[in-house]
Amino acid sequence: MANVRKAPQAILKREPPKHNAKQIKRRKTKEVILTCVLIALSIVTIFTFTHLFKRIQFSLVDQQSVYGVWVEQNVAGYATRKIHIGPDGVSVSGRVVSTNYEFDGNILEYQTGELLYQYRMLNEQNTQMIQLSDSHYNPTYHLVEEYTERLR
């Protein structure tokens, strides 16, 4: 056999570049700041799109479909609650209890003081709703009178 000579391979040792401690600390600080900024921007983006989605959802729902007089069902006449819903707000038994309400097509909600009232529609025509509450009694309401503009 022929005498085959292998070329000696040079073993090169690479030494890590020498950085001083200030440069490393500065770079780490920049990384931390950039990470915090990205997290903050992500949170702002999520809240913005959530708010935008909610606004679009409410604009697509016909708010006037719940306007009218809602009467509590299956109770004695003297204890019946009447809820008037119109563009000016919500009135219960002749008293304005809230000037703001939200209706997303399925859930109607308004707040009176610290109490949040929620009602779920029971049919597609939005003529029956049930009050959602933690108590054992969840009254059902029926739309008996559509809202009409009251002229003096």
TrEMBL record:
InterPro entries: DUF2850. The chain crosses the membrane at residues 32-53. It comes from the Bacteria. The keyword Transmembrane applies. Keywords: Membrane, Transmembrane, Transmembrane helix. This is DUF2850 domain-containing protein.
